[in-house]
């Protein structure tokens, strides 16, 4: 990768979108309606002969059945005429990604291995993972945006896997649908009998973080469409303030993410000097720290009430010194920020180790004294290794020592 300096041209071209060139999506013969925008649903209806005068009403009905009621079969859609239901069922499905495995941690964290539809000759099926982390006052769903990742961050297991492809909006929304199916999180639904889903009359999924596999800003349009569907008040209805998109720092796409989704932003900073960040997050060679922070300062809607979360993975002897903590505070001065310290979650073959607890505490004290809340998230779901950022690696067998190792769960407040 070559080094870039900021040019006025690039800074002045917010419409420019960096994209993953690799697109290997084979649509199923009978596509699912899950994840289509209202406009796309209107096109579907027009295609099967619904008169234009009825389109708006029909789209509204489908939207309701899909995203308020969680319908899985067209015949559940009782407000839609029998004839239309039958025509829809001839051409479309309401399919979500297929659950290949479900693991439930003793603390209630749940992890699903999902298989995506489509034929891929001679290849393993495309699989992703989705994780649900319940808490007393919220339930957070951690979604994947790509199968694999291009970015090769040194401490991230996903980074060691090649990018297979971007997910479609339907596959991103589909992860929410699967989670709510499995959690009985639709009106009249039955929660799992293990009692690990706190749901006293409230919704099980209240928060969403794009912190699973992949770089969401390299799959911008699909992620945007999916998040807008997730936030739609007449549908899934997850508040934008409770949706967080995490990026490793695709600076030119940050402004559009803010303008077009309005969700909360998290930035995987992990280092305060370019030399070290180049090593940990190689994308830094393209978009160095100052350019990234410039994009953060310009994030639409940024205020003390809507801060950017800076993620900082604690790597023993690498980025966890007192001097690093002080430099971090200095670097973020003037940016409405929260800082999430993430205990490094080791994986087989990594040379990094998690910082000692005392060091994490010392580090967080510096941050706290500078006026930031510096929570170190309690590791969750240790027994099933449902850590965001290395989700798929969780399917591999780990040693008992590694299993006990700290895990990262940098969630939203
Ligand atoms: N690609 C995006 C979002 C997915 S990763 C990004 O990089 O931000 C979500 C978070 O998990 C990131 O902050 C990432 O740096 C962190 N992460 C990845 N691997 C990790 C590990 N082994 N231990 C702790 N955090 C990790
Ligand atoms: Fe990709 Fe994020 Fe992992 Fe980096 S940390 S390799 S950007 S998933």
Any overview of this molecule?
- With 413 residues, this protein is an alpha/beta fold.
- The chain has two domains: 10-15 and 29-91, DNA polymerase, domain 1 (Orthogonal Bundle), CATH 1.10.150; 98-404, Aldolase class I (TIM Barrel).
- Helix content is 29%, strand content 14%.
- The protein contains twelve helices and eleven strands.
- It has helices spanning 8-11, 38-47, 52-67, 82-91, 169-182, 220-231, 251-261, 274-280, 289-297, 322-331, 357-369, 400-404, and strands spanning 98-104, 110-115, 127-134, 139-142, 146-147, 165-166, 207-210, 243-247, 264-268, 308-314, 337-343.
- The strands form two sheets. Strands 1-2-3-4-7-8-9-10-11 form a nine-stranded mixed β-sheet, covered by helices on one side.
- 46% of the residues are buried.
- Residues 1-15 and 386-413 have low confidence and may be disordered.
- Bound molecules: S-adenosyl-L-homocysteine (SAH) and iron/sulfur cluster.
- Residues 153, 155-156, 211, 215, 246-248, 268, 311, 313, 342, 344-345, 388-390, 408 line the site of S-adenosyl-L-homocysteine.
Which band does the percent of strand residues land in?
Answer: 5-15%
Shape: elongated
Structural class: alpha/beta
Number of domains: 2
Low-confidence stretches: 1-15, 386-413
CATH names the topology of the largest domain as: TIM Barrel
Compressed to H and E, one letter per element, the order equals HHHHEEEEEEHEHEHEHHEHEHH
Distance between the termini: 36 Å
Largest β sheet strand count, sense and barrel closure: 9 strands, mixed
Q: How many DSSP H or I helices? A: 12
Taking strands numbered 1, 2, ... along the chain, how are they ordered across the largest sheet? 1-2-3-4-7-8-9-10-11
User: What is the CATH-assigned architecture of the largest domain?
Assistant: Alpha-Beta Barrel
Give the mean pLDDT.
85
Rg is 21 Å
By DSSP, the count of extended strands is: 11
């Amino acid at each position: 990768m070559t080094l870039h300096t900021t040019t006025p041209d690039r800074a002045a071209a917010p419409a420019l979108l960096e994209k993953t060139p690799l697109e290997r999506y084979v649509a199923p013969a009978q596509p699912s309606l899950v994840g289509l925008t209202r406009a796309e649903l209107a096109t579907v209806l027009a295609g099967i002969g619904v008169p234009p005068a009825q389109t708006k009403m029909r789209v509204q009905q489908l939207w309701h059945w899909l995203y308020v009621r969680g319908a899985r079969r067209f015949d559940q859609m009782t407000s839609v005429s029998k004839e239309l239901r039958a025509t829809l069922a001839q051409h479309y499905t309401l399919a979500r990604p297929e659950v290949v495995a479900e693991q439930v941690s003793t603390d209630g964290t749940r992890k699903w291995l999902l298989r995506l539809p489509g034929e891929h000759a001679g290849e393993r099926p495309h699989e992703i993972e989705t994780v649900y982390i319940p808490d007393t006052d919220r339930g957070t769903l951690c979604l994947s945006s790509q199968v694999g990742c291009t970015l090769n961050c040194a401490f991230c297991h996903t980074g060691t896997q090649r990018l297979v492809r971007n997910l479609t909006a339907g596959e991103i929304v589909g992860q929410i649908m699967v989670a709510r199916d499995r959690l009985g999180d639709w009106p009249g639904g039955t929660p799992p009998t293990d009692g690990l889903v706190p749901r006293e009359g409230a919704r099980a999924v209240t928060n969403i973080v794009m912190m699973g596999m992949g770089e969401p800003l390299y799959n911008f349009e699909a992620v945007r469409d999916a998040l807008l569907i997730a936030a739609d008040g007449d549908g899934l209805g997850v508040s934008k303030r409770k949706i967080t998109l995490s990026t490793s720092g695709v600076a030119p796409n940050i402004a559009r993410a803010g303008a077009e989704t309005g969700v909360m932003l998290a930035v995987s900073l992990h280092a305060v000097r370019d030399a070290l960040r180049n090593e940990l997050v190689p994308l830094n060679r393209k978009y160095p720290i100052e350019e990234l922070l410039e994009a953060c300062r310009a994030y639409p809607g940024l205020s003390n009430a809507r801060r950017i979360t800076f993620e900082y993975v604690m790597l023993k002897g690498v980025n966890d010194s007192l001097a690093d903590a002080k430099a971090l505070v200095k670097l973020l001065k003037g940016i409405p920020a929260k800082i999430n310290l993430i205990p490094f979650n080791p994986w087989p073959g990594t040379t990094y180790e998690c910082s000692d607890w005392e060091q994490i505490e010392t580090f967080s004290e510096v941050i706290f004294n500078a006026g930031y809340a510096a929570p170190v998230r309690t590791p969750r779901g240790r027994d099933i290794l449902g850590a965001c950022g290395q989700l798929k690696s969780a399917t591999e067998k780990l040693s008992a020592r590694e299993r006990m190792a700290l895990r990262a769960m940098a969630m939203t407040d």
